[in-house]
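note to self — DONT lose this again. spent like an hour looking for the file last time. sequence + predicted structure for the chain T wanted, 481 res
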Amino acid sequence: MRLISSIWALAALVLAGTFAPARAEQFWQNISAANSQPKAQTLPDFVDLAAKLSPTVVNISTESAAAESPGGSGSNDPDEPPLQIPPEERFAPRGVKSLGSGFIINRNGYIVTNDHVVENAGKIVVSLTNGRNYSGKVVGRDSKTDVALLKIDAGGDLPAAPLGDSSQLRVGEWVMAIGNPFGFDHSVTAGIVSAKGRFIPGSYNDYIQTDASINPGNSGGPLIDLQGAVIGVNSAIYTRTGSSMGIGFAVPINLVKEELQELRTTGKVRRGWLGVYIQKVTAPLAESLGLQEPRGALVADVLKDSPAMAAGLRRGDVIVAYDNKPIKDSQELPLMVGETPVGHKATVKFVRDRAAHEVAVTITPSREEEIEKTLSMQEQAPSMSGAGLGLNVENITPELALRLGMTAKRGVVVTEVQPGSSADDAGLRRRDIILEVDRKPVKDVQGYQRALAANFLGAKSVLLLIQRSGSTLFVPLKRQG
């Protein structure tokens, strides 16, 4: 019986093939015959590169001058692998030594490394491949780009690493790293460029990402292309364990080259300043602001007496282009402005009240404290919400302001947030002060409730401006249901 069933099944298949309808149109693409032939591939030979570039790489050991609290640049989320800046001791206690790397760029002994390698260093020892040690002197530092320039007196005629063009780097390209991981001097690792233009919260650079192994001690060492040119300065790793997980970051060498002359002559980098606090434009924010897509940099506040204030920029404007360069991510703006020569009149395009505008802004020298606060605001970018959706608010009275230590004179203060509510989901906290509802200032609870009622009629969300710890942020509030 089983045999007969098999014969009938075979016949059915034959008949089905005979009378099958025309084949449906193919909705995928096959590789063409011309491209399907295997191509001979050979892995790059790093032997000559390592032999040529290793003498230009130095080991740097430092001894901290003062005790500091342990710190890092990792994520605040315990479930996220932290971004770590090698070596392990970012801020070492007094007397504790740390290791890093660097590379010679000039026969007279100028060396590039990371700023964090020599931060708080009381003593710097530079070791060459020939075993000789020299005392290192910091010529210039820039914490924003994590770049430092050192000098040793070795009598000249030192081997120097050529600097390449990081703008020509392509994703997938082979690269090599040389450094001092875990104290193992002049270790060579290889990999590819995993990505370009990586922005890390709280940083100034658009990093090169690579899977070439970078570990504690590699900081400040060179990332080298197959032509033997340095195209990046190894700076950070993304890890759960403290060791390489195949995600490393390097400062693009073009950014370093822009700073070297100024570091050598003045010891620091003077960069342009716009004078705004910015935050990322998320999809809910874009919807609230009437943008077709989430792009640009949302101005959360404008600093007093800043170029932005003089040009007429306001809180709530979305900067979408700077000097005719479109801004996709908010973190691109600080880099663009920082690279602008002081005194240059830049063109800023922005969206205000759903209409496009353009203004000229004269760039002035940066103010380090304000820029530091701006970068930290980009990292935080918390989301917050409003009242009537799981929270209670009160008027700001002199007594309440005194009790809570507030300086605000207007708005309403959040006194309670219900767990599981829209306000809770959005991250609103007690003592947050709501200043505006959908770009309209609120002075008291009555005005706040009127504004909420008016804006929530048929609307999916409302845009709030809140103040927390002296800083202001825009936050879209979703309507429940």
